[in-house]
């Protein structure tokens, strides 16, 4: 039978709408996969911590540290799923504030060197581990209730960076290519309050498992959030996606996590200052944005999720903008790879200044800002909604 004369090319608007929906669905699949991978690694961290606290020796201590570092690899690639009141950071900023809050005042948790830490020594809540009279038992609820008290964001008692401090201790050394925090495993054997320190480490790691699981569960197909996210119009979902990516790129990563550290020349402003893992944090956070732009995510088992990307959608509407965003995204990844390979972020920021964009860190900051602006423009082009990429 001959084709009807009425049959013609697909309506361009309909084709764009299809790709928008595919992009949103692919995004949801990538979000779930990356959170599931983070959950797998955090469970492995919990196992390593439990083994170490039960049998505290040098080998088990190192295994716990290695597990913490490994857990940061997938979690770092989830950071672009923020800033739009999704499951990770709702109206009250939870549970993100319980999972990844920083910087923290370590004096609230444990002993610190003289003259360091911002806690008022007259505050009965300081030095939780060594303050048995105020905290006779260390429970999940106790530690969660203290976190953020007095509306002070540095009063962090739980999450990745509390665990990091408990494993590495303070890094009071001058920036050096081979120095991290110098906590000894004997803090969990013969040191004062070693048993309480181990108990704190176990409780805070178990809490991390609980809080991350709450996010994973909401992104499952049967979860409370994902069906609602997919049911709303594609433009609303895309606007949310690009709010997260743009704000992470320009305001959070380029700003709070990189430029502030350069400006203050302070180790305390590093994202992972105790383990000196900030170089990887920078790379992984940038990768999380790159994954969205290109619609791909490589899982910890080596398999890859891929589908319709932001570039695919943008190409249909404004090919020039799509080409520009692709170029900027690749430039970002080139620059953060240099930071990652150089290691030890505190070393890299030494000698850099906030107004000189010719050095590696600030050069990456500049391109991340440009990427944030390009993502905001992509949002306006695709959905007609204005996005402020600053946090």
UniProtKB/TrEMBL annotation:
Superkingdom per UniProt: Bacteria
Annotated Gene Ontology cellular component terms: cell envelope
Keyword Signal attributed: yes
Domain Imelysin-like: from-to ranges: 32-372
Heme as UniProt keyword: no
UniProt-annotated location(s): Cell envelope
UniProt keyword list: Signal
Pfam family of the protein (one): Peptidase_M75
Protein name listed in UniProt: Imelysin-like domain-containing protein
Species: Polaribacter filamentus
């Amino acid at each position: 039978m001959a084709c009807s004369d009425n049959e013609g090319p697909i309506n361009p608007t309909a084709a764009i709408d299809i790709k928008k929906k595919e992009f949103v669905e692919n995004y949801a699949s990538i979000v779930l996969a990356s959170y599931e991978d983070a959950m797998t690694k955090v469970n492995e961290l919990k196992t390593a911590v439990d083994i170490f606290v039960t049998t505290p020796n040098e080998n088990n201590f190192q295994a716990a540290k290695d597990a913490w570092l490994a857990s940061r690899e997938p979690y770092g690639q989830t950071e672009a799923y923020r800033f739009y009141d999704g499951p990770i950071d709702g109206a009250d900023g939870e549970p993100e504030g319980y999972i990844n809050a920083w910087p923290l005042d370590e004096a609230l948790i444990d002993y610190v060197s003289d003259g360091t830490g911002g806690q008022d020594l007259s505050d009965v809540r300081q030095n939780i581990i060594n303050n048995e009279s105020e905290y006779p038992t260390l429970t999940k609820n106790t530690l969660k209730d203290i976190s953020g008290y007095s509306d002070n964001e540095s009063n962090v008692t739980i999450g990745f960076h509390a665990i990091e401090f408990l494993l590495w201790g303070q890094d009071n050394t001058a920036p050096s290519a081979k120095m991290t925090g110098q906590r000894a495993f004997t803090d969990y054997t013969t040191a004062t309050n070693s048993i309480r320190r181990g108990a704190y480490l176990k409780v805070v790691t178990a809490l991390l498992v609980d809080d991350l699981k709450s996010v994973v569960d909401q992104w499952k197909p049967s979860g409370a959030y994902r069906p609602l996210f997919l049911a709303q119009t594609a433009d609303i979902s895309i606007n949310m996606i690009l709010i997260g990516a743009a704000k992470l790129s320009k305001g959070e990563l380029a700003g709070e996590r990189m430029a502030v550290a350069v400006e203050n020349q302070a180790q305390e402003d590093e994202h992972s200052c105790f383990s000196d893992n900030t170089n990887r944090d920078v790379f992984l956070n940038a990768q999380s944005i790159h994954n969205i732009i290109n619609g791909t995510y490589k899982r910890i088992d080596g398999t890859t999720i891929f589908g319709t990307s932001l570039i695919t959608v943008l190409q249909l509407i404004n090919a020039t903008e799509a080409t520009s965003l692709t170029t900027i995204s690749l430039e970002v990844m080139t620059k953060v790879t240099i930071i990652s390979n150089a290691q030890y972020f505190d070393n890299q920021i030494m000698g850099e200044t906030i107004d000189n964009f010719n050095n590696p860190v600030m050069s990456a900051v500049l391109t991340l800002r440009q990427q944030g602006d390009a993502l905001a423009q992509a949002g306006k082009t695709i959905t007609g909604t204005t996005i402020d990429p600053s946090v």
